[in-house]
Design goal:
The structure is a single chain. The chain has two domains: 15-263 and 462-471, Rossmann fold; 278-439, Rossmann fold (3-Layer(aba) Sandwich). 51% of the residues lie in helices and 12% in strands. The protein is built from 20 helices and 13 strands. It has helices at 2-16, 33-48, 74-85, 88-91, 96-116, 118-125, 146-150, 165-171, 193-225, 230-236, 278-285, 307-318, 348-352, 366-375, 388-397, 411-423, 425-439, 445-458, 474-477, 480-535, and strands at 23-27, 52-57, 68-72, 133-137, 154-159, 240-245, 261-263, 291-295, 323-327, 340-343, 357-362, 379-381, 401-403. The longest helix is centred in the C-terminal third of the chain and has 56 residues, at 480-535. The chain is globular and about 120 Å long.
Length: 536
């Protein structure tokens, strides 16, 4: 018995591979609440594992986490406010180049605001400060990579929104066939030959923006704060160990990933959901024909939606026998309809999990789509910008959603679409199947994220998990040797056919020529005989 217990303990010690407590510096400059929903559970779990966490964030987001040292940067709040009130904001949605140039300026200011902040500067000057890992959003904040060199720390990334060719580049995952854009503005979602060519040009332009606009701005900040060269920046961009991606293959996007790209989509679902209040709970419990939940997310307020978007919903909802829970900051938006319950702060996960919920009308934010998949609820999508089009395109292809143009809504179209989603059982069945696939994993998303974070702490050198294009010859990277061999084989076959065809043609031509010569000779002999017979 004792030997059995000892063996079990040894087995656990070997296989759990618990990492020693580490000092981790996390940099999350988000000014929106949704990305913090992703990283907050990870930070809390690492604290529970005994790691010492310092987090650099804006003021107020997220609320203080117990056991975490927070460094708040007030300038991040001011930068976002100034941007929203500036003349540049309307130009942000004009086209991809305008969006890229404005974003490059904003992100360069964000990097400088963080690195020049008084609290951060005191930390950098404190010789007793040390960090084993720099954990940050894998984005265009390249100047912040200098923290990894400054502290001689492991550089680890998180992608809270969606993956892109930039994430693949940082992870050493050079596979052009799976690249996705950073910005989805005017990016084609279908795979016709013309659109595939358009998307290749689109991503090539984004890479040019990265090299010509984003990198020079970030390099300037890095040189000013750390004094590092452009060569050091290039080196740091290839030093990411693990990158946690807020995605999962069950959501409709199967990718070829190198081992250090870890899918942890649904990590935010590990937190206890906010409960419904008594009034909302009773409203849904008593819904004889089911409930429809309408929300445009935490970041899109109803007051920003045009009148032509809101009115068709009011008209459509009054025609339905289902009850509607509408997330809105305006209590009067329901026109006092008995079947509409308006709520400013909705406990979305609890609403989606309610047994009477039949449909989720959403803008298609990544977390909202994940929560709909997790609860197995069909979706009516109304994408407005960024990755929302792509997120909804995936679940539409999976058969659990329909998508409408938010700028071209009519009450009749909206009503008929809602009724189809409610009355056709195929949508609910596919949503349930997708939910089962999303949940069927060897470990929970949070457990996976924690395990790989500690793997990165235990294994600083992860070059064996990356593919660096610079180290792969061009012919080998694009498999041009195989292509050339195939071209040679096809050329040999085509050449053989051409030679045989030409020979057959010549043989036929020679035979025709001999036949014509015989005919000519025969005519030459025949003509005197005809003349003789006529004369006689």
């Amino acid at each position: 018995m004792r030997l059995g217990c000892l063996g079990l303990i040894l087995h656990l010690l070997v296989h759990l591979a618990v990492a020693p407590a580490a000092d981790i510096l996390a940099v999350f400059p988000y000014r929106l609440p949704s990305p913090f929903q992703v990283v907050r559970p990870l930070v809390r779990a690492l604290v529970e594992r005994g790691h010492r966490i310092t987090v650099i964030t804006p003021v107020g987001l997220p609320p203080d986490i117990e056991g975490v040292r927070h460094l708040r940067v007030p300038m991040l709040d001011k930068l976002m406010q100034d941007f929203l009130e500036s003349d540049q904001f309307p130009d942000f949605f004009r086209n991809k180049w305008s969006e890229g140039i404005i974003t490059a300026t904003v992100l360069a200011n964000v990097s400088y605001a963080i690195l020049s902040d008084g609290g951060v500067q005191r930390m950098l000057r404190d010789k007793s400060e040390r960090f084993d890992m720099i954990l940050m959003e894998a984005s265009h904040l390249d100047a912040l990579y200098g923290l990894a060199e400054f502290y001689n720390a492991t550089l680890m990334g998180v992608s809270c929104v969606t993956t892109s060719w930039k994430i693949d580049f940082l992870a050493g995952n050079p596979a052009p066939s799976i690249y996705e854009p950073v910005s989805h503005m005017d990016y084609a979602l279908d795979h016709s030959l013309i659109n595939m060519w358009h998307n290749w040009v689109y991503i090539t332009e984004e890479k040019l923006l990265d090299q010509l606009v984003f990198l020079p701005a970030q390099l300037q900040v890095m040189k000013k704060i750390f004094g590092y060269s452009a060569e050091m920046l290039d080196s740091l961009r290839s030093r990411f160990s693990i990158i946690l991606m807020n995605s999962h293959f069950s959501m409709g996007r199967v990718r070829s990933n190198v081992p250090n790209l870890i899918e942890v989509g649904g990590m935010h679902l590990s937190e206890t959901p906010e409960p419904c209040d008594e009034k909302l709970q009773r409203f849904m419990d008593e819904a004889e024909h089911g409930v429809i939940y309408f929300s445009m997310g935490q970041d899109i307020l109803v007051r920003f939606l045009p009148h032509n978007v809101q009115q068709p919903f009011l008209q459509a909802f009054t025609r339905l026998k289902q009850r509607v829970v509408w997330k809105s900051e305006f209590p009067s938006v329901s026109n006092n309809s008995d079947n509409i319950f308006v709520i400013a702060m909705a406990p979305q996960r609890e609403i989606l999990a309610h047994p009477n919920l039949r449909l989720f009308i959403s803008h298609g934010g990544l977390l909202s789509v994940m929560e709909a998949i997790d609860s197995g609820v069909p979706v009516l999508g109304l994408p407005l910008f960024f990755d929302q089009f792509n997120n909804l395109h995936r679940v539409k292809k999976a058969g659990m959603a329909k998508v409408l143009d938010a700028n071209n809504l009519a009450a009749d179209t909206l009503t008929s679409t809602i009724q189809e989603l409610l009355e056709n059982p195929e949508y609910a069945a596919r949503a349930k199947n997708m939910s089962e696939s999303f949940k069927d994993r060897p470990m929970s998303p949070l457990e996976t994220a924690v395990w790989w974070t500690e793997y990165a702490l235990r294994n600083r050198d992860v070059t064996h998990m990356r593919l660096n294009v610079e180290q792969i010859p061009l012919i080998r990277y694009y498999r041009l040797d195989s292509v050339l061999f195939l071209v040679f084989r096809l050329g040999f076959v085509a050449g053989t056919i051409i030679v045989l065809g030409y020979r057959l043609y010549r043989k036929h031509r020679d035979r025709q020529r001999r036949f014509e010569e015989r005919e000519r000779v025969f005519l030459q002999i025949r003509m005197p005989l005809d003349w003789y017979e006529t004369a006689w």
